[in-house]
Amino acid sequence: VADSPWKxxxxxxxxxxxxxxxxxxxxxxxxxxxxxxxxxxxxIYESTNFYGYEISDDAFELCKARQSERLEFFKADLLESDKxxxxxxxxxxxxxxxxxxxxxxxxxEKAEYKIFHIPLDLSVSSLxxxxxxxxxETVGHLHYFTPDTAIATLEDCGYxxxxxxxxxxxxxxxxxxxxxxLAKLPRHVLxxxxxxxxxxxxxxxxxxxxSK
Length: 212
Prior knowledge:
This protein has 212 residues and is α/β, with parallel strands linked by helices. Helices cover 42% and strands 20% of the residues. It has ten helices and seven strands. It has helices at 4-17, 34-40, 57-64, 100-107, 124-129, 131-138, 147-156, 169-172, 178-193, 195-201; strands spanning 24-28, 49-53, 71-74, 85-91, 111-119, 161-167, 206-211. The protein has a seven-stranded mixed beta sheet, with helices on both faces. Helix 1 crosses helix 2 and helix 9 (178-193) runs antiparallel to helix 10 (195-201). The longest helix has 16 residues, at 178-193. The two termini are 28 Å apart. The model has no long low-confidence stretch (mean pLDDT 93).
């Protein structure tokens, strides 16, 4: 929930810069539902309806408290639904899914536009420090991506990439550890040179992808 306003703003940026006019937005694996709530409060979406799908009992209990006139939540698997939307959000989700490519392929039919936010866990630094297993144990990431492998995964699943945007959480969100604080300066320097180089070398950003 704490990072949801920031994630909503990143989604808003890629929607605005691609001039999308969306009447319905759905989020798969919406968690506590705060990203959708934040978007629904934005005046540019005053004619947009929002829908969240979540299969976790605990998360759905949190969702229900956030429902409003234009924001509705379902405790159901979106992939088993016959509903379709203008856009589907898949925000930090498929790296948790065992059969992630099958999941991504089935998601294609649910909307004209698909917006993905993909953690870029796989870097030279994370490999050298053994951080991939730490992420597996603490946040449940089963799959790890670089910018190139994230895009290749979507393309292999039949998606057409319309736009990509790096989201620098290291710069926008408070550091959560002392190591993150120490890495902030080199990340700023490398990010100014190339977001892709920074993500590949030391991490600290995710990838927002707009696709069809």
